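Appendix B, record 7
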Amino acid sequence: MAALALLLAGCSDRASETPADEQQLRPDHEHIYRCEDGQTAFIAFEKGGLRMRLRVATERAMVVLTARAQGRPYHGTGGSAALHGSVLRLALRDGPAVNCRRA
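Structure tokens (predicted):
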């Protein structure tokens, strides 16, 4: 029983090291990108990489973008995104295009 309590205590310490906005927005399967404008983008890929779920830390709404094929840009009503190695070029509907790097 004491070992279980120590294990749980260790887990809660690590969670407190993560900023609160990341704890609330980021499920375990999402990737974090830091953008040149200071924002943080949380990205999850689905359907074999053809669908991208995107959330910017300052926004609560999720944007879903789709690509026609692997390696092609993602598009949707909320904007567009293109991956070039570890750089994500993100152009959301209501803002300028920014480059983001995988954290």
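Remarks on this record: Strands lie at 31-35, 40-46, 51-56, 63-66, 74-76, 79-84, 87-92, 98-102. The first strand starts at residue 31 and ends at 35.
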